[in-house]
Amino acid sequence: MKVDGATLLDGFRRYLADHNLPVTHQRVAVAEVLFFAGDHVSADDIQRRLARKGETVGTATVYRTLELLVKSGLAREHEFGEGFKRYEPSPAGQVHEHCICSSCGKVMEFSNDRLERMIALLAEEVAFRPHHHRLEVYGLCRECQQANPLARAR
Question: Fewer beta carbons within 10 Å, N or C terminal of the chain?
Fold first, then answer.
């Protein structure tokens, strides 16, 4: 999904100011890594990427900033069964689902209008009013299927 990192970063600065929270260099650095990552990152991924850029941000600050980003609605938190959380930017109005490779851990995003309509119809059938949903499909990505021909036969 296309993400405008600069707009999300401005939104985070506004969120911090609106909630009387300091706009620190460390918080902005964590948000920048997340908003411009291009993939689903863990707290450890963020810390490693910051270190490569010469930024020193403590582990607690990374986790607290990620909590703020999720609370602000500018990021989403996912647990893909790996024993840790991954994060992604959450631009307003962009709904998508995930395919997760159970071999290499690659996460692929997809969106489908028919799926969204089907979820609305299913909810309507049972008089349910959904406010959000999450779909995660687990399997093998193309590369892992090609690397292990026996895996394809299952």
Answer: C
| Tokens, residue 112 | 């489908």
Q: Which uninterrupted H or E stretch holds 130? A: none
31-76 residue pLDDT tens: 999 999 888 899 999 999 999 999 989 999 999 999 999 999 888 8
Query: If you ran DSSP here, which 8-state letter would residue 81 be given?
Result: S
Write phi, then psi, for 7 (nearest 5 degrees): -65, -40
Which has the closest alpha carbon to 44: 36, 33, 35?
33
**153 contacts 115 by C-beta, under 8 angstroms:** no
Judged by DSSP in three states, 39 sits in: coil
Q: Quick one: which of 61, 50, 57 has its CA closest to 21?
A: 61
Q: For residues 74 and 53, what is the distance between their CA atoms, to the nearest angstrom?
A: 23
* Cα–Cα distance, 20 to 22 (Å, whole number): 7
145 Ramachandran zone, left/alpha/beta (phi>0; psi -120 to 50): alpha
Instruction: Encode pLDDT of 80-113 as tens digits.
Output: 878 889 998 886 656 778 788 988 888 887 778 8
